[in-house]
Design goal:
The chain contains 4 helices and no strands. The chain is mainly α.
Length: 107
Amino acid sequence: GLISRILSTFFGGLTGLAMWYISSGRGTGNPYGLAAVTAVCFPVFFFARIYYPGPPINVAFFFLTSQLVIGYSWQDTHLPSIGDVGKCEMFRSELLLILLRYARMGS
């Protein structure tokens, strides 16, 4: 239960970071590269979401975290704001919040 959710969040964040850096390289994000990467990855994600034999919450954490990393990375590079969080920082803070929430719950 708990360990699998934490691992799903961790690997989802790593997948989102990999997808972002494959699509943008060292630049600020290329919409065509991001479209190409998501066109390849999303069908695999949808198939895994439907046919994964384990608990559906683990798959949801995995894909939600990966999409949050991609979305916040795009927002960070294209919509300047006072509180830009960055890519790895957002992933780190989300993982920390999930760990703290589970530590508070006790299970």
